[in-house]
Structures are given as structure tokens and as C-alpha cells.
Amino acid sequence: MKTKTFTKKLHRYLIVVINVGMAGVIVIKSCFSSMAARLFVRLLLCVLPVFQPALAQDELSPSTWSLPGELPRAFPPTGMSLARLSTGITHRSAGFACAGGSRSDPRDFTMTAVLVRHPRGDLLIDTGFGRDIDDHFHSMPWWFQLITTYERGMSALDQFAHAKYDIHRLRAIILTHAHWDHVSGAADFPNTPIWVSKEELSYIRSGEALANLAKGLGDARFTPYSFEGGPYLGYPRSHDVYGDGSVVIVPSPGHTPGSVTLFVALPDGSRYAFIGDLVWQLDCLMQERERPFVARWLADSNPAQVRKGIEHILSIKRKFPTVKIVPAHDAAAFSQIPQFN
Ligand SMILES: [Zn+2]
Ligand SMILES: [Zn+2]
What we know:
- This protein folds into 2 domains: 54 residues; 273 residues, Ribonuclease Z/Hydroxyacylglutathione hydrolase-like (Metallo-beta-lactamase, Chain A, 4-Layer Sandwich), CATH 3.60.15.
- Helix content is 35%, strand content 20%.
- It contains 13 helices and 12 strands.
- It has a 7-stranded mixed beta sheet with strand order 4-1-2-3-5-6-7. A 5-stranded mixed beta sheet has the order 8-9-10-11-12, with no helix packed on it.
- The longest helix has 30 residues.
- The site of one zinc ion has 6 residues, from helix 7.
């Protein structure tokens, strides 16, 4: 009991220290050279993991979610399929991806778009890095650029052109959420509508730094949808894109206010859950680990909601182990899906 109280106090103390530290970064940034700020940020990022054990998470409780006895019915049409398009990577570490991970365990975060072929119009789930990724990256906040290095690959548009895929077959781009790395490629498809939840559209309009790129695409690009459908796998509301259960979107807020998960059913009986950035790497999910404190603080709009979302998807995986969970930046999880060609 005493240990728990001490840990809580230490937790609060460290939050103050971290906030003061970040305020210091901003002061230094505005008063001194960018070199000084760069050194300060890197020093801070080296020091913070030392405190990680004291900021350890409580146990997750996936068993508290009540789920239906079987997977929802789906009638995916013949000819429906999935293909992945890798468009680049960012260099991260396991220590950045999940609590308790090692900073010396390098993890390349894949930036992947997924093509859903459907007789009633194709979809692109997220877009990865676009042709103008270098400009897009440099439009990001300075602190984000300091902690991020990336390698560009071939954009989704160029991969489509190379394979002579007719982009007019695309009915829409659906974003798991509106962060820069999911939106960059959307700029290459000026005539394709981008579907987002109403909550995410409000977030885009808010001008929050990590969604500024989406805002820059212009309001007219976005078509909001609502969750008019009933409960789906324990989620209170849903949106069935084709009305056949093959692509069903559910709200999964927290990483951003309007983040979603897409459940996809294929004619061969396989099922996928595209969970966006609920977690970045699949092993974090399977080991029941959230993002580390610093990453939650930097990347999540509402860490408590993310935690609930992780518990929910874990409970689905436990009850229906055949559902393939695909975090947006995990190359191994994407390897289950054929590469686009
Ligand atoms: Zn994100
Ligand atoms: Zn992301």
C-alpha cells in the first residue's frame, strides 16, 4: 500500500518534471540556436526512459468486455480482395513503441496504404507517404522533426501508375485517423473523396499540430460519415460501408478523437481488423503493453480511451483468435496481406 502511494506521488512529481522540461525546451528554442534546442531535446529523450519503470502502467483488463457469441455475419462478394502498398518507413525503437521495450531494439515503422478491391468501388485505407512527403515532413512541428527520421518509398499513386491500376476505381480514401503519416498520400488523389468520422473532421478543423497536414488539404476534400449502424463486436455503433458486412467501421477514439477501426471480411472467410495507431506494433498488443508514458503524452489525444480500446481489441483477439489484427505501422502484421502489383 505504502509502495503504491509512493509510486503515485513519484508519478505526479515526474509529470511536473517532464512538463517543466518541455517548457524549458520551448524557452530554449525561442531564446537560443536550434542546435541548443536539438541537444536539449535529445538529452531529454535519453533521460526520460530512466524514469519509465516508475511510470509503469496498471494491468490491462481485456476480460471485462462482453462480446457476442460469434463473429458478425458478412457476405463479401466474389472478387473482393486486399493488397498492401508500402510507401516508406520511419526509424523507431521498441522502447518508443511499447512500455518496457528496449531503445536499442530498432523498429522500422512501415507507412502502408491498403487497397480494398470490391465490385461496388474500391477503397484505400490510409495513404502512407505521398509524392510530396519531404515538404509534408518539413511542415510538421519542430519538436516532431527532431525525434523523427524517415525513408521515403514509392507513393501509392506511383505504384498504381506503375501497375496501370485505374484510380477512378477508387470510391474513397478511408482514414483510420488524420495524422500526417496516414494523410500525406491523399494529396496525390485530389479527386478522390476522403471519408472520416464526424469527430475526426472536427479534430482536423481544430488545427492540432499533428493533423495540420490534413487541414491543409482543404475542408472540401473530406466527407464525414456517421455510425448509424447498430452494435458490432462490443462497439456501440458501426458504419457498414457496402451494406454486406465486408467492411465495417467502428469508433475507436483516443489516439485522436475520431480514430476508427475497420473490420474487413474476405470471401475466403478471413477477417482483419485495421486498428490504425491504437498500438504501433503487434507484439506490444499481444504482450498487453501500452505505449510508453512519453509516447502516450506526445501522440495520444486521450490515453485513457486508448487504453480502453486496447483492452477491447485484446478481448476480441482472445475470443476470436482467427481475426488478424493489423496495427498501422507493423510490417510483420502487414505481411499477411499480399503486396499490391
Ligand atoms: Zn497517429
Ligand atoms: Zn501513424
